[in-house]
Amino acid sequence: MFGITTLEDISTLILQSHDLDETLNNIVTLVARRMRTEVCSIYLLEDDELTLRLRATRGLSRRAVGKVAMKISEGLTGLAVEQSKVVSILEPQAHPRYRYFRETREERFHSFLGIPLFDRRRPIGVLAIQTLAPRQFSGEEISALSTIAFQVSSIVVNARLLDAIRQKEEQANRFVQELEQTRQSLRRQSNDDGNDDSPARNDYSALRGIPAYPGIAGGPANLLDERLGFTDIVDQGEVEPERERRLLEDALEKTRIQTLYLEKQVAARLSSDDAAIFHTHLMILEDRGFMQKLLAAIEQRRHSAAYALKTVVSDYVEAFGRMEDAYLRERAADMEDIGRRILANLRGQNQQPLQLKNPGILVARELLPSDMASLDAEKILGIVTEVGEKNSHAVIMAKSMGIPTIVGVKGVLKRVAPDENLILDGNSGTLYINPPPQVAEEFERLEADRQREVQRFDTYREQPARTADGQDIKLRANIGLIGDVAIALRNGADGVGLYRTEFPYMAHGDFPDREEQYRLYRRIVEDFDGRPVTIRTLDIGGDKALPYFAPPLEDNPFMGWRSVRVCLDHRDMFRTQIEAILMAGVQGPVRLLFPLISSMEDVRACKEVVGEARRHLRAAGLPFAEKMPLGVMIEVPAAVYLAERLAGEVDFFALGTNDLIQYLLAADRNNPLVAKYFDPLHPAVVGVLGQLAQTARNHRIGLCLCGEMATDPIHMALLLGLGVREFSMAAPFIPRTKAFLSRITLAQAEKIARAALTLGVGRQIREHIRKELAEQDILDF
Ligand code: PEP
Ligand code: MG
Is 648 within a domain? Predict the structure, then answer.
């Protein structure tokens, strides 16, 4: 009977297959036999996305394979693609879309079932079956076939992917050969001319990027290898290939098992669609080419298993990264993920934290929050990245650590060699490579000035945050890592306004259990010694991924399955975190915050989980805070619209302006191309913030603004005037903000806000505030 065994057989077929045609043939044979149909065929869509070609068949003439092709606007097979849904038809000849191909002799068949194949939502082909006798397929049969169609889709995608890598590799090899030939002929020429063949080297150069966090730093370059965790893996010279090979095979086997497990787990909890990513990983882990390259690096080049993995995975990542097709480019992240996991298994660990040998300037292509979570902050004097935007989470973390940072420095990895002397000017966004003594001296002078400025603000650390006319303002810290606690306390933060709990999750090799989370939260609550700590539940997705929980590939991750949406779909994990937070509430004043709320259903569902968590803890006899203020992040425009209603459900609002601005203005917070559209002083943003402050006042609930905009005194002046009295920010900004507050009165701020609300252009609002502050002699920050 058609059922689970067929599915298992197909899985085995897929796992063992490396050749697309052979696999497709095996699948059509198996399906036709198990379904007892005379025909099973697979058609794939060509690159033009308009033509379907027969790629494998059981029952139709073999000669038709590769020849029979039709437009998607033709035939019943085309109809399945065109409509993106299952087409099930009795007596197909009578259907207006029927098209006859002589090669296939299809006139004999009296029923047709076509199931479209998809790569995510993009159609890529059709699985079709036909029978001699008229037959109505049952819902169960159609659903089983749809599962097979899903599996077929994933092998097609993977096979194409591996093919693309092979082609790119061949291209790259050809290119290297050509380059070498050119080089040799140039050398011959210059020897003929009697020249020295080493070009003169200009040692000093400067590169420009986007300033992300101000400050100046100098030191040796610390190059970070592409987030693979391979930084400290070097070629060890002579190794024992047999031993390395065994180590590698063991690690690969473990990684395969873990991947299978991950796939099953995700498929059971979510859908097989979501689990598809792990199938891709499995295909790569099973790919003969991948294996051969690893073995060649060990056996022929005598590399250690780890070094072989480093070189092979980096080659793949690079090849993918260069691809034009956005989908294929995204595969680079999969390769990285696989590389990390194999490496972790090679080292017998779940997840190896990245190690930097000496303090220096970290130079990387891109930093993900998980890198920042695992790097030793003490050793990072400055950060330079090739890509990335200044609002990315990694940069937010760099800010909270107070590390001068420049992003978007094109070509930096090619221009900088390990340990080369660098000076990073985070104020102007310039990176100096091997600067001459005069430049170095100038920077020493600037650094001394900066230190003096820091000292000037130092006096404010211990002082209360108060306006010139005596209004107390709450300035709390945004924290993510445990190291942020000391920074927050040192900078005189009044507790924590936003604890981004995803960062400790990122630093782990697996989901931390309740006890682990509780210990961490308790420690933070105790360190703040009676000052409030707002703990936000897991906010992954968007640009924040967990190394062990790959989010599904999405066209629009910031609009997708992120944050509280992930949590509500993983209730056990969500409840576990809430339980740990409730338990930590026994140690001090904790507030519980839910991110990315976009409906009343969201907030009610979150409260339901809080109820479940309480019941669970009570039943287990564990102490927890019976009363804990609950809050929601207002960061989705829908929540702004629902603010009055939401205010009736919770104790406080947290204004997440980083996301709120991006969603309100449809301007990606990380995309430099639209940076000018991401304007915190856009009249729409100003209006919304004023309205939210009013709503919170009317309902007498708390309101804390925790987006990055609060760190700019121009914004702060306006926000005060709009009625915001509580802020949370990267702690190094707190002393400076206190200094600013001490010079402005509420009346001045309110005057600024009143005028701003009447202006219709962001630039005018900025100019107006600047002018007002300058006139009042407030702005010398
Ligand atoms: C925000 O969106 O403004 C916010 C504070 O949250 P995050 O930056 O973590 O998304
Ligand atoms: Mg946010």
Answer: no
